[in-house]
Amino acid sequence: MNHFAEELKHNKQESEDALTVDLVYSLSPEKIPKYKKTLFEFYDLLSNSWIKKNLTKLRNFSAYLGIGIKQLQFQSLVLLSTENKNPSSYDSSISQLLNYIRFDLNIINVAGQATFTYFSLSIVFSIFIMFLLIFSQLRAKRKVLIKPFIIFIATVTWIIENYLMIPMVIYSTIYIQHCWFVNDDYVIVYDRKLVFNEALGLLFVIQLCMLFSLIFLNTIFNYTSAYSYETSYGRAHSSISIKQIVFLFLISIFHIIVDKKYFLYMSITVGSFMLYNYIEYLPYYSNIDNMIDGGLWLTLTTSSILSLINDYTSNGFETVICLLILIPFLYYLLFAGIKKNLERKSMSSEDSPYIYELKIRRLCFSKKKIDEETAKKIRNLFNQATKKFIEFKLIYIWECNFELKYSCDFTFAMMKLLKMVFASKRPSFLPKQDNIFHSFPDIESQYFYYNLFKKISKSTTLKDLILLKYLKNFSKSNLLDADACKKLIELIDINLSSSQYSANIISQKCINFYKALIEKDRIMDTYLKNYESDTDSMTQYRNFREQLFSASDPNVQSQNDKMRESFVNKLLGNNSEFNCPRIVVSGYPKEIGTIIFINTAAVELLGAHKSTDILGLNFCHLIPPPFDKVHQNVLERFLLFGNKTELKRPHLVVLDSEGFCIEVTMQFRLAFHSQVPYFIVDLIPRLPRECLVLCSPEGKIYAFSQELNGIITKEMVNIELLLPGILEYFVIYPSNQTFVYKNGDKNEMIKRIELVIDGEILNVVYLYEDESTFNFYHQEMNELRNFSKQSSVMSKTKDLKVFAKKQSFTKRKNRTSVSVEIKATLNAVDNTDKINFLSKNLNYFNFGITLLFIIFAISLTLAQLYYTDSKILCLIVKELTTIRYYITSIALTTRSIEISSNHVTGKSYSQYVNIITENVGNMSILLHNMKDYSSIYHVESEFKNEQMLIITSFQGKLSSKNINLYESILEYISKTEMLIANNFSNYDDIAYIEINGINNIFNSINTTSYKVLESTILKSNKVSQILSLIKSILFLPILILVMLSTIIFIPLEKINISQWTIISNISTQTFLLIRLKTIERINQLHQPVIDMEPTVSRNRKIYTVIWKKYMWLILIFAIIIIIYYLLINFIIEDCLLFLIESQQKHWYWGGLRRSLIPKTFLWSRESSLSLFNESLYEKFTELQEIRSITKEFKKCERELNYINRKIIHDVLDLNKFFFDFYDYLDLYLGSPCEILNTVSNCSMNMMQYGMHSAINIFESDLDYLMDVKDNNWKYLAQKENTTYTMAQAIFAINHFFSDKAAFYYENYSKILIELCVAFCVVSLLFYFYFIRREIAKIQGILLSRNQISIMFKDSSLYRSLSSLGETNIQSSQQVLTKNMYP
């Protein structure tokens, strides 16, 4: 037995459940990513657009014109960088003329900066948007308005690349620089001031990146490939063009951001480098094209050198004139250098793929028509380049284009293109190279590879491609069918051992089988559409249920391989009467030589049991040693260096499965699929088969034909032992000549053919039968083999007869027990529609309830934030307290004006008037604002309902009248305005303001404000209570969901119980029969499996509920709702209400304290006026309500002290309520001047230790004035200024507290919103990732068990079962096992 037979035996033992070779992977080993494939398709459309095909001459002229414009634009930049320049020189004049080539400068001067800004941004972003639209359509495989978009992109990109690139880069760089790095608006480049915006600056950053990407990709993809004569502007690679784009961007950017002198140095360096690249690599086919593009950098380098020389000379010179004189001479030198370098490199022996490209290019362009000799030289150069630089992928692009152009053989061109698959891994037979060259950029070679493959595939009809596609689809169906069979066996085995496993595991096995069956049917539907005429081959997979769950004979052998091969022959157009042995061999480097398909004729020729014994082996295993090693690299050499796509080798000897040799004519031909090469190999046997021996020239026997088995023994290692003296005949008689061998009584007709394979000599010796002893031995051995075959057939037939006898004994015994179980199982009903309907409704109910919760939570959150808005409620209280302060302040200021004629006061008359005017104006606005709050709180009606007594004066006589508070304030404002108009000369108005401002109106506003305060707080609490009551309804939908789920789960659970009952009542005989049929199917269609006998220990009461996990999920969902309810109702909302109430109370008490400061000072000052009988008490003795001055002062002082302590106590309570108000507390106990930076004169001594200390000092000073009755008016004036300052400070403190509380209120409002959003997101995620999946799982469990119930209820199955019986099944299983594994 040789190595091939040993490999077959090893392969048979190692393979268990899977196929030997995975055709699905083998036929599609690697795929291009979708995004890259779409990008290639986009640029393929762009390269073949209308503007590219129809405007070739215009585009070429435009390209040359674009180079000239770039030269002028660069010259303008160089002149701008020249420092030693006379304004009256030619350089200055030419610089002004060159400004017209600067399109950015022209548009800014003529149409304005905004026009060029939006023009620059709009064209780049519009290209990007259209690119995304086309890209998305190509991904979706749709084409809507693609042609107009492609034409627009091609046109605009063409214009930008040739004319606008440098101006747009310069302007974008200037805009970005002046937005963030330079504060000056003056731009030197444009010699003017410009306006910059940071948002637009960010857009310009994006625009600059997109502009570079656009031109970069356009440079790589949007040009013709190598050796194309259609356009003169063709090139072989893009590396030089990419460098040019990069340096164009860098020079434009560095012109703005670096010093002028450094820019000139960098221009010289870059220009010299690029000039060297154009001369050294010669990227374009035409020398003129290389000269024109290289001239751009020649001009830049020369002009930069002249500018530097000019800067270092004292007097300077005309650089442009010098440049114009030098340019013709420099261009002549450049053209001569390019031409000379092309000749030198084409004759060079340097090791570089670019050198080979130049040599091939020169041969291609040297003659108009290439003859056979030149083509042979070019192909030799390609082969040499492949050996040395196999990693350089562009070689294969060049070679493929060459063959397309000159040989016009698409298949041969495809063969050259597919050499690229070896670029990632160098074949072992090629010598290793020290310098490895890779294509740069690699995506360029990938793009041309993809497009060329696509082009060749469309241009030619490759019949073998149909075969490979068919094999791939067939293999996929085969794998899915095998997977379904395996899952079915697992399901049966787990049911037969159900006492050892839980019901959940059995359910999971049901689901696995159901999913495998559904996936198989889905792929089968696609398979049916693609191969409608393949009726025979499709039947073997379509009849899965019919074969396994029907009364078919398990011993019937299918003819599936023959069915499939007949369809393969139809696909290839072959004659069905002649079925040639054929194999398909992979050409993919990682598995080259692997046999991925073999037909039945080849299996029979090689003597294997079935195709899976050979699939996965290497092709070299068919070749006898030692020539198998010679053939190891034959496929790789053929792909890399072959000159044809088909190869025929006559007199080739291959080995069969037992190691005997067979003479065949082997025909190779190349096929392609998924950008990978394959070989279709036909093995045409020589008929009739002859007796032959393979031996070396020395006589060593390598192999022999099966007809000589037994004649040639193991000891016969040399042909001399079989035919003594035969080597002498070989010397006498030449190859391919028949001669008679005589040795004693042996007379044989012998023919020798000498084969030379890669330098190795092989002798094929043919032994023709004659009347001799050799002939007798040959016939005798054949008779022995035939007798052996007959005896094996008889033994199998005998086993089948014994099997039939055993069957008759057990029929009656098992018929009764089987029929009982059949009746129980036949009650199975197809509940598919019912399961789908109930599951769908359960899913809808859950989704609806989840949406209801989300809508409910969002609505409640919005209502909470709207009806408990702290800003509006606090603003109402704030404005009421501010009106109260203004009334008191006006009364104090009016009183100060009145006494300022006799005594010293704190301010001048004009200052007092300004204070009163400002207060009156503000009070009028606040009073008008009351109407705006009517929708939230009816403040105006409260003021109108509050009745009060007003003291009026007429000609010095006081009187009283009843009026509401709102009218009294209006009248107060009116009297004050009249008083200002009369320069405070009306005594009656003064009396009205002084008496009512500090007494009646003040008290009424206090009372009304407190009512409003209590009402707003009560209203907020009521709204919160109502919302809390509404929130309690959150639990109602979950109760509804539980009820609906219960209603739906009752019929589902009934179905579940009935399914478990049916599965439990399926007989053991039924399971064993179907298991036997499944194993038979696997052995017929797939790789055979070892049939292990199942352990039978069944549990007849299998059952598990399906609603338990679902109900746990509903309970978790209810817990989430409860947590959300507790968080928002008892934590967040309590904090919000507390903050609202604190803000309102603080504004009320803080505003009252602010109003009491001037009122307290007023009564303190009245004590000094009483010494002169000028106090209000003496002035209005008729007013009985006013008590003594001392009592009024003490009353105000006590109220001020009480309010001050109350506010301190409230602030301390706030800190206890986990709010950080320590900085607010510092205003009272520390230095407020560090915080109250808006208060003037805050640095007075009495406020250095906090507002609390300042108020106590203020009260002590006023007590002192009351006690000593001092008439120090300067001191009183000082205290009056202190009064205004402290009122201002208190107002600032109130605002500070309000802002602080509002900050916390906003934070907690955000937390409320975030909790709402989190709840909505968690609810949706919980539904989609848990509840919905659980419902789908329940549906899958029920549908899978329903499918199994339907399968097992087939009446023909039970009739077959009742006729066989359990013993019969066991016997048949033993017979089948014996036949499959002898």
TrEMBL record:
Q: Report TM segments.
A: 116-136, 148-174, 194-217, 238-256, 262-279, 316-338, 844-867, 1029-1050, 1110-1132, 1311-1330
Question: Is Disulfide bond set as a keyword in this record?
Answer: no
What are the UniProt keywords, alphabetically? Membrane, Transmembrane, Transmembrane helix
* Top-level taxon in the UniProt lineage: Eukaryota
Recorded protein name is PAS domain-containing protein
